[in-house]
Amino acid sequence: MIECLKRIIREYQNLEPPEGLLPRRVAIGSLPGKVSVVTGVRGSGKATLLRQRIRQLIDCGVPSENILYLDFADDRFYWMRHENPDIILEAYFELHPQKRGNETVHCFFDEIQALTHWQLFIDRLLRTEKCEINVVGSLLPSPEGEATSPLSGRIVSWEIFPFSFHEFLDGKDIECDSPLSTKQPLTIQKAFEDYWEIGGFPGVNGLDQRQCVEVHQANWNAILASIIGHHNLSHPRAVIDLAHWLVDNTGSYYSVSHLTDFLKSLGHRVRKNSVVDWLTAFEDAGLLFNVNIFSNSPTRISVNPRKVYCIDHALVTSVNSGILTNRDSLLENLVFVALRRVTPKIFYHKTKTGREVDLVALLPSGPGQDRAVMLIQVCAALADPRVKQSEVRSLSEAMVDLAVAEGTIVTWRTDEAIPVGFGTIQALPVWRFLLEMEPLT
Fold first, then answer.
1. What distances in angstroms separate CA 243 from CA 81, 107, 252, 269, 291, one per listed residue?
2. CATH classification for the domain delimited by 2-160, as one of 3.40.50.150, 3.40.50.620, 3.40.50.300, 3.40.50.1000
3. Pairing assessment for the beta strands 131-137 and 35-40 based on DSSP bridges
4. Where do the DUF4143 domain residues begin and end (predicted)?
5. The CATH number, out of the four listed (1.10.150.530, 1.10.10.60, 3.40.630.40, 1.10.10.10), of the domain defined by the range 199-324
6. Sequence-ordered list of residues with C-beta below 8 angstroms from that of 11, at least 6 positions apart, any chain
7. Core-most of 132, 302, 344, 366, by most CB within 10 Å?
C-alpha cells in the first residue's frame, strides 16, 4: 500500500500546474499554526483554486518536492478509508527524508472528508510537522462550529461559490472595475443576459443551452448522490424528492411539518427529525440554503416558516419542473447568492402591518463600527404603478421598523431613486447591484 501511495505522490508532484486558468476574485493563503479550509458546492472551482495556489508557490521558487497534493476523490485512495492516514506522512518522508523538520511542506488535501477522523489527522500534522496545510471538501460541516473539534480556533475558512457576475465578466475580458463609459453598460447588460442563461458554475462556461442543462443535471445528481453516500442516508428516494420540492419552490416559504407531510403523501415513512437532518446536509453541501425571519426572539423564529434558496439560479432552471418558478423567484435567488457571498447573516422581514421584505442582510463592518443592515426587495419590473407602490410601501415600513435610512429594490432594468419619509429607496438593475456587491467580498 505504501508503495502505491508513494507512486501517487510522485505522480502529482510531476504534474505541471495548469496555466491560463481564470483567476478567481478570492485567494487562499495561510497563517502560522492555522489550517486553511476551503469549502463549497461540488463543481464550484475549489480544486482549481488549489492548483492556482500551487502555481503561485512554484512561481515563487518553492520546489515541487515540497508540495504534497492528494485528491481523495481519486479511486486509488478508496482503501485509505480503512487505513490510518499517518501512512501518508510515512510515504512522503520515505520519498523526501531530508525535508522532515528542515523545510516547510505545503500540503494540499482535496475531498478530505473521505478520510475517517480527518480533523484528528490534520491536528497531528499541525502539532508535529513543519507544514502549511490546505484542505478542501464539498461536504464539510464547519469545524469551527463543533465545540469538540480538535481544530477549534485554528481554522481559516474560505467558502467558494460558482463564478460571480464580476468573475464571469473577467472571463469575457470585459472591464468593469473602473468608472463605466457610456458604452460599457450596454456591453455589461448583454453579458448579464448570458450569465442569466448559464449561471456561474465553471463547467458550463462556453457551452450551449442544451449542454448547460445536461451538465447542471449531472452535477445536481452527483451532489445528491454524494450527500446520500457521505451521510449514509437510509431513505435516498425521499431525500431526492425533498431536494426537488425545495428547488421547485426557490424563494418560497416552507415549514418542516409541511415538508414531512409532503414526503408522507408520496409514500415515504419519514420523521421530522430526519427532514431537519437532510436540510442541514443540503446546506453543509452548499446546495440549498435556509433563511429565517429577522427577529431576536427564538420563539418567533421557530413558529415562522423559512425560505429556501439554491446555490445557482441557472441550476434551478435546469433541474426544476418549471411549474412554480418564475423570473421574480429566480431573480430573488440570484440576489440572495450575491448577498451570501458577503455574509451568512441573511433573513426575511415582516413589518408590523404584516408586509414582507424579501431579504435583510447584516453586512460585515470594521472594528468599532455598527453592523450595516441592508433591506432588499426583488421585483423584475416596476412599470405597474400598483406593484411599485406595494414594493415601496413594504420597504419604507421596514426602514421605519429597523431604523434604516436606505432601501434597495433590485429590478431587471429600472434605475431610479425614490424618496420616502424615512430616507431613500434606490431601484437599480440587477447587473449593477451584482457589481456593487462585489467589492464587499
1. 28, 35, 14, 16, 16
2. 3.40.50.300
3. parallel
4. 232-366
5. 1.10.10.10
6. none
7. 132
